[in-house]
Amino acid sequence: MTYPIDTSIKSPNHAPRGSIDISMLCLHATVGSARSALNWLINPASRVSTHYLIDKTGHIYQLVADDHIAWHAGRASWHGVTDINERSLGIELENRNDGRDVYPAAQLAAAHWLCQEKIARYNIERADVVRHLDVAMPRGRKTDPAGFPWPAFANALYMDVGSPPQQSLTHYRVKMAVTAGAKVRAAPRQNAAVVDTLDPGDDWYGKELPGTSTTVPGFGSSARWVRSADQRWVWSGLLEKVRP
């Protein structure tokens, strides 16, 4: 399924992208209704904008062309890079951002389609699909998109069409006792690069690999690596299986 993109509303708040390639997606929440967000994002006095806004019905607005910089991230940093606006596309989701407002299935489906389109077009790596709260500086300055089903949503972007995570992988949830910021690794080694972090209650889809048992402080010798479909790794001791 493809989604129409509404280009009838444009924001004046943008700049030429220049020579830096698009290599990131950054998801936000509007902290209010789509209508009020649109009014603010097209107001020259606001000095803010985003490339796309997806309302709760799944309607996709494009406010700034991909080849222009939208002013969505503010002060931000990711893996030592600080020019986040210059290298990213901003995607706003209509939501109150209180952690209780639900993201409807129609909205999630539209966001999934749009993100997959941009990932394929610009060859964006999983580690560079982020939330505003992941990149905003100082850390804790932003909380959006609060209550969004992350990282299950982001992981599913890199799975083959027709192979949803709950059918091909085991559904886990990050234990509530886990300290926020538990590390996700690029390989099954304790010294492998950190590509993401976990928050208590997050969903995780993966396979526990036999033969990878290792003594890990706090988990004993029975901890194994659990691999997601996009080749990211966490300790089994951080997770608990979600019963069907």
Index terms:
18% helix; 244 residues; alpha/beta; SH3 type barrels; Lysozyme-like; 2 domains; 6-stranded mixed β-sheet; 5-stranded antiparallel β-sheet; 17 strands
Concise structural overview:
The protein is 18% helix and 27% strand.
Give an account of the 3D structure.
The chain is 18% helix and 27% strand. It is α/β, with parallel strands linked by helices. It has 2 domains: 5-148, Lysozyme-like (3-Layer(aba) Sandwich), CATH 3.40.80.10; 165-241, SH3 type barrels. A 6-stranded mixed beta sheet has the order 1-5-4-7-3-8. A 5-stranded antiparallel beta sheet has the order 16-15-12-9-17. The protein has a two-stranded antiparallel ribbon with strand order 2-6. The longest helix has 18 residues, at 105-122.
